[in-house]
Amino acid sequence: MTEREYNECVNLYADNVYRFILKNLRHEEDARDVVQGAFEKMWVNRETVDNERSKSFLFTVAYNQMIDHIRKNKRISLREEFKENDRGTVAPKHDTKRILNEALSKLSELQRSLVMLKDYEGYSYEEIGQITSLNESQVKVYLHRARLLLREYIVKVENVI
């Protein structure tokens, strides 16, 4: 990979990789660190990276660094949740984005990553398998289970869109 090809890769994929990592980590600074680390690793290994497979290489490295980051920094998030019912009135809200984000947050790290790679980024099962080190059958099964959990959460009476 030449310097020009690397710069094109940065321009083409930086936003996609950042969105993918941010959606999983839900912390902007950590997501930037992971993405920067992925591009740094790509730069260091640019002579061995095939330009045609640069996107796959980048997502694989970013995914692995994200998993490492999660394992290193198990964050404890304390938050108090107040439901609409606690205030005495029930007002139906149909906030699709909020409900979808809540549903995604209920998934495991792997399930969320698979959904993001397939449904948001448009990767094939084979490519997702390469990125996550799973075989194609495992990707299909885990993705199917994740989608079932999403559907189950989204169609609950209190969350009906």
Give a verbal description of the structure.
It is a single chain. The chain is mainly alpha-helical and 161 residues long. 67% of the residues lie in helices and 0% in strands. The chain contains 7 helices and no strands. It has helices spanning 3-25, 28-44, 54-72, 96-105, 109-120, 125-132, 136-154. The chain starts with a helix and ends in a 7-residue tail after the last helix. The mean pLDDT is 81.
Query: End-to-end distance, in Å?
Result: 46 Å
Q: How does the major sheet shape up?
A: none
Poorly predicted residue ranges: none
* Radius of gyration, in angstroms, nearest whole number: 18 Å
Mean pLDDT: 81
Give a short summary of the structure.
With 161 residues, the chain is mostly helical. Helices cover 67% and strands 0% of the residues. It is globular, with a radius of gyration of 18 Å.
Task: Provide keyphrases for this structure.
161 residues; mainly alpha; 0% strand
Tell me the layout of helices and strands.
Layout: H1 3-25, H2 28-44, H3 54-72, H4 96-105, H5 109-120, H6 125-132, H7 136-154
